[in-house]
Amino acid sequence: MLTQNLGYPRIGGQRQLKKACEQFWAGKIDLTELYNVAQKIKEENWQTQLEAGIDLIPCNDFSFYDQTLDTSLLLGVVPQRYEAVRSQATDNGELDLYFAMARGYQKNGLDITAMEMTKWLDTNYHYIVPEFKADQQFRINNENIFNEYNQAKALLGAKAKPVIIGPVSYLLLGKEKEAGFDRIELISSLVPVYIEIINRLGQSGAAWIQLDEPCLALDLTKKEKEAFEFAYKTIAQQVSGVKILVATYFEALLDNTSLAVGLPVDALHVDLVRAPEQLDEVLSLIPDRLILSVGVVDGRNVWKNDYEKSLQLINLAVGKLGADRVIIAPSCSLLHSPIDLELETAIDPEIKNWMAFARQKLVEINELSQIADGNTELLAENKAAIASRRSSQKVHKQAVKDRVAAITDADATRSTAFPVRQQIQRERFNLPAFPTTTIGSFPQTNDIRQLRARFKKGDLTLEAYENAIEQATIEAIRWQEEIGLDVLVHGEFERNDMVEYFGEQLDGFLFTKNGWVQSYGSRCVKPPVIYGDISRPADMTVRWSTFAAAQTDKPMKGMLTGPVTILQWSFVRDDQPREQTSNQIALAIHDEVLALEKAGIGIIQIDEAAIREGLPLRKAKRPHYLAWAVRGFRITASGVQDRTQIHTHMCYSEFNDIIEHIAAMDADVITIETSRSQMELLQAFAHFEYPNEIGPGVYDIHSPRVPTTEEMSSLLAKAADLLPAQNLWVNPDCGLKTRKWPETKAALENMVAAARQAREQIATEV
Questions:
Q1: pLDDT tens for residues 618-671?
Q2: Is 441 annotated as a binding residue?
Q3: Could you tell me if 461 and 671 are in contact, meaning their C-beta atoms sit under 8 angstroms apart?
Q4: Cα–Cα dist 310/573, whole Å
């Protein structure tokens, strides 16, 4: 049996890529220094996989920002608005264009918005959405993939396996930017470029090429299925000397099984962690010519593989196909895993023995191959670790389980309908039309980060630390008052991360020091690990919210993270249903909401940024998820008085197919990301006639560019054309933690000015 990996984390064990990119953007290092960092990471990754005994090792899985954007550059899919950047001669070559597409561009007399960004299927990884025209032309635009393969081949030899997003998924993950055509129709002009790329790689010595086609696990139309058949039939006819592996993941193939196993390729990868039940059907339909890659090691979680369970699947496949037609692999790219568990020295040893990060998962793949060949010693060690976790009292708490079991419908319902609450809240807060606010966080400067680090190391007393945080909070409040924001936030200077901060104060969580995972670009997150039943031993945010509220006469929002977002952005338990874990978190947040209300906080925001992200990829599975996800949010907000205004926030999501469930959450105000899509995402709320209040984002916080007042006024006008003006709020797309203060201040001042213009326009019309 061969072993393979589908992809490896590219940020570096100490986030070297993040730091280098940010230094490059700031002009502190040049292109050569950036490339040197990248090259070292790539070589270390290849060497790690080589030493772990992996037979097929991915290359071209590295990216400076996003692999989908890399594919767009490779194929020459560059929107016209960026041609001005390309035409400016700089020493950075194509990289200026690349980062302009990802982050926007505002210098040298140019002001260009970034491309749209959204979640990669049901993960917290964000990709840059390709933009297609009806007459879209494709061509090989750069040599990056070929250069990287040659670098990998020099170290790995025949083990080097180039990875590319497959042609059909690339189209389906993009968007049409003109009316009157379906992007899948571009497949006939796209495939010849893929054939040229594959043949060039084969001529350079590539034995295997991996084409990622995650869309094979989605609901597909007849035309989309025909595109798969056309693409791979054409590739098979015109490619020689190289083997093609099509990789699917994150869901079962289901009704696409016959399509997938019937593609004229050499190997098919299936995700048997997310969907082990699909193996029987795959094996019943698989043709004699096809090799099967079994994804049995979880690429998206941190728990040690249960070798007995994996071996049952491996042996079933080997029994049907023979060992020479089975490849052992992770379920998906290890991009979604932290890098190395050995870097963690402070985790409880008992719990650490239950865990595996990307580097350890490579070992698991190799060990499963050895066990399948008869190494019983490795199996015995694994069985002991799995048994220890199942029986540990650190995991199970009966009082928590009993409270969840006692939840009733009344625990998930506010006592009064929204129109009644709305009137009561308007009388209480007396806000102007188009009230302005922000999503919660303000820039986390180096001074703030160093302050927190010094406190954690013990170099700073609690009193000194809190005094400094108080001063930063007061300064942020004074500045918000000066520019005229209507509803203030305290800035969250005491918080490291919107999930980690809460997990640190809840029982059932543990934390890593180096468990970083890429979210987008240089943005890395360090998800907490949920290892046991969850409860809230004490107040979590009341101290800082009440301090901030005491500094101003304006409304001050209390800021919380919702249960589904905490669930989605943590590494979760795999020994109980996610619904059960979500309900445990919901009860903990419910208690915090009531504590904030009791302390006098009248506006409470419960962020559910990830509720759309958690949506199952298959439509048939969505109703059950949406029922418990919405119920979890309602549990957090139930029990508050009508005069308490509940906000929620969602970002980078498509809402059309879940809009009725968003309405069912019954938040008084929802804020959403809409600036990159030019209010396109607001269409769903308009068509649905969304009844509650809404703040469509007018300021793209994932770009360093400062939007003008006129630009934001234009977006507000579009919003007012779609929804009742009296229900509209004005706010950025998301929190401002990752931005710098100068750009943040300039953008928010422009935003407040845009809101004032909108109020004046309404007054004129009246």
A1: 999 999 999 999 999 999 999 999 999 999 998 756 677 788 999 999 999 999
A2: yes
A3: no
A4: 18
**Residue 575 labeled ligand binder:** no
Give every residue of the chain whose pLDDT is below 50, as ranges.
none
Per-residue pLDDT at 54: 98
- Assess whether 382 and 462 both reside in one domain: no
The three-state DSSP-derived secondary structure of 682-734 is HHHHHHHCCCCEEEEECCCCCCCCCCCHHHHHHHHHHHHHHCCHHHECEECCC
**What is the full DSSP assignment across 113-152?**
PPPPEEESTTSS-EEEPPEE-TT-------SHHHHHHHHH
593 by DSSP, 3-state: which?
Answer: helix
Q: Would the annotation count 524 as a binding residue?
A: yes
Q: What are residue 697's DSSP bridge partners?
A: 731
- Interval 703-712: pLDDT, tens: 888 999 999 9
d(CA 756, CA 436): 10
Which residues are designated catalytic? 702
Co-location of 496 and 624 in the same domain: yes
Indicate if 308 and 446 belong to the same structural domain: no
Q: Which residues pair with 509 in a beta bridge?
A: 530
* Shared domain check, 602 and 547: yes
- Is residue 208 marked as binding? no
Element (DSSP H or E) covering residue 533: strand 529-535
pTM above 0.85, yes or no: yes
Is 649 flagged in the annotation as binding? yes
Count of the separate structural domains present in the chain: 2
Whether 384 and 464 share a structural domain: no
pLDDT digits (tens, 9 = 90+) for 192-208: 999 999 999 999 999 99
